[in-house]
Design a protein that fits this description.
The protein is built from 9 helices and 15 strands. The chain is an alpha+beta fold and 405 residues long. A hairpin with a 4-residue loop joins β3 and β4.
Length: 405
C-alpha cells in the first residue's frame, strides 16, 4: 500500500511540474486573534530564477524601508516584501488567474511593492496608488498589506481592477485570517494554481487554531518547513530514513517548501499605542530548509546583521551558506532532478539531517532575538540592544555553521 501511495505521489508531482515556478504561499492574520494583538503578514517566497535573496534597508522617496530583494537587483527596481518606517508593510503572491484563464504572469508586482514601500503609510495610501496607476496595470497578484493603524487586507489585483478583502471584517474572514497561494478567489475558477499548497496551509492553520498556536514564533518556524503534501497528504516526517549515510531520493513537488523556495518573511505589526518603529520583520533569508530565522528592525543607525548584507558578489554570507547546504539536498541535476530531494540528508531517524541541525540553532537565535525585540518595545532608546543582538548573531552563526557543516 505504501508503494502505491508513493507511485501516486510521483504522478501528482509530474503533473505539478507543468505549473509556474513562482509559487509563493502567504497568510494574513488580524490583530484581533493574535495573542499580543499585533497583526501578522507572512510570506513564503518562491522565485522562477534568482535564488539569492537578502534584506536591505533603502531610503525611498518618502520613507526608509526594509525590503526583501534579489541580490542581482539590490532593490534598484523591485522589492519582494517588506515594511517601512511609517508602519506600512506589504507582500504578494503571484495570482495567475486574475486576468483571465490563460495563466499569464505579470511583470509589475515587484516594482509596485517598491513604490508602495517608498510612499505609503496606510491601506488607504495603497488604494490611492492602485487607483492612480495607468491601465493596464501589468499586475496579476494577491497583495497582503498591514499598517500601523491595525489595517489588514488582501488586494486581489489584476490589470483592470482590484478587490479588497478586509481581514478585520468577520464577514470576510470569520476566523480572523486568510491565506493566498497562486490564484485569486475572484479570478478564473478554471485556473487555481497552488491549490495543493492552499490545502496544506489551510490544514496547518486550522490545526494551529485548535492548539492555540496562531502566534509569530510558531508560524515562522513551521509554515516554511511543513513537509505534508496538501493533495496526497503524504508527510515526509513519516518517511524518514534510518540515517544519512546513503542518498534516499523522494519526490518533492508542490509542498509549501520546494526547490524554488528562496526566503520567508513574517512581519509583525504594532499595537495602536506603539510607534511604527516597533514593527518587526522576522526573516529567513535563504533556502528555508537550510537556514535560520531572525528578527530585523529599522534602526536609526541603519544597521543590520553583517551575515545578511551583500558581499563583493552582491550575495549575503548566510544565503550563500544556505545554498551550499541546499545543494546537498538536491543532488540530482539531470532531467527533472530538482523535483526530487535527498530525504536522508534533510531528516533521518538519527537526527543528523540538515534541517534537524538547523532548528536548534534557530531556537537559540529566536530566544535572544525575542529578548532584544522585547527590550526595543518596552524601553526607551533601546536601539543599542538590537545592535548588540546583530553583533552576537553574526558571531554565533559563523561559528556554529563552521562546527556543524
Amino acid at each position: 500500500m505504501k508503494k502505491v501511495i508513493v507511485l501516486l505521489f510521483i504522478a501528482a508531482c509530474y503533473l505539478g511540474s507543468l505549473s509556474p515556478c513562482k509559487a509563493c504561499t502567504s497568510v494574513l492574520i488580524s490583530g484581533k486573534i493574535t495573542p499580543d494583538g499585533r497583526p501578522i503578514l507572512f510570506k513564503h517566497r518562491d522565485a522562477a530564477s534568482g535564488m539569492q535573496n537578502l534584506p536591505l534597508l533603502i531610503q525611498g522617496e518618502r520613507y526608509r524601508y526594509l525590503a526583501l530583494v534579489n541580490a542581482s537587483d539590490l532593490g534598484e527596481k523591485s522589492a519582494w516584501g517588506g515594511h517601512n518606517e511609517a508602519g506600512f508593510a506589504i507582500i504578494n503572491t503571484a495570482a495567475y488567474n486574475l486576468n483571465g484563464p490563460e495563466g499569464i504572469d505579470s511583470n509589475g508586482d515587484g516594482a509596485l511593492m517598491k513604490r508602495a514601500l517608498e510612499i505609503c503609510a496606510t491601506l488607504e495610501d495603497f488604494e490611492t496608488l492602485l487607483d492612480t496607476l495607468p491601465h493596464p496595470r501589468d499586475l496579476n497578484s494577491n497583495f497582503g498589506v498591514i499598517d500601523a493603524k491595525g489595517g489588514c487586507a488582501y488586494y486581489e489585483t489584476g490589470n483592470q481592477r482590484y478587490v479588497k478583502f478586509d481581514v478585520n471584517d468577520s464577514s470576510v474572514a470569520p476566523k480572523g485570517y486568510l491565506m493566498r497561494t497562486n490564484f485569486g478567489t475572484t479570478g478564473a475558477p478554471t485556473l487555481r494554481t497552488g491549490a495543493e499548497r492552499y490545502a496544506a496551509i489551510t490544514e496547518l492553520m486550522e490545526n494551529a487554531e485548535k492548539r492555540g498556536d496562531i502566534n509569530s514564533d510558531y508560524l515562522l518556524t513551521h509554515i516554511s518547513r511543513y513537509l505534508k503534501h496538501g493533495l496526497t497528504h503524504i508527510d515526509l516526517n513519516n518517511m524518514m530514513p534510518e540515517n544519512g549515510d546513503k542518498v534516499v531520493m523522494f519526490p518533492f513537488r508542490d509542498f509549501i517548501p520546494r526547490y524554488t523556495s528562496t526566503a520567508t518573511m513574517l512581519i509583525q505589526g504594532v499595537l495602536p499605542t506603539e510607534p511604527a518603529s516597533k514593527m518587526v520583520c522576522w526573516t529567513i533569508a535563504g533556502y528555508p530548509l537550510t537556514t535560520v530565522a531572525m528578527p530585523l528592525m529599522i534602526l536609526p543607525s541603519g544597521k543590520l546583521p553583517a551575515v545578511l548584507q551583500p558581499t563583493d558578489n552582491r550575495c549575503s554570507w548566510l544565503c550563500n551558506k544556505s545554498l551550499e547546504l541546499k545543494a546537498r539536498l538536491f543532488c540530482e541535476d539531470m532531467g527533472n532532478g530538482h523535483d526530487y530531494i535527498n530525504l536522508a540528508a534533510l531528516i533521518n531517524r538519527q537526527n543528523t539531517g540538515i534541517l534537524q541541525r538547523i532548528l536548534p540553532l534557530e531556537q537559540v537565535v529566536l530566544t535572544f532575538g525575542n529578548e532584544a525585540v522585547d527590550k526595543m518595545r518596552t524601553k526607551k532608546k533601546a536601539d543599542k540592544e538590537m545592535e548588540k543582538f546583530y553583533d552576537w548573531v553574526d558571531e554565533f552563526l559563523t561559528k556554529e555553521y563552521a562546527k556543524l557543516f
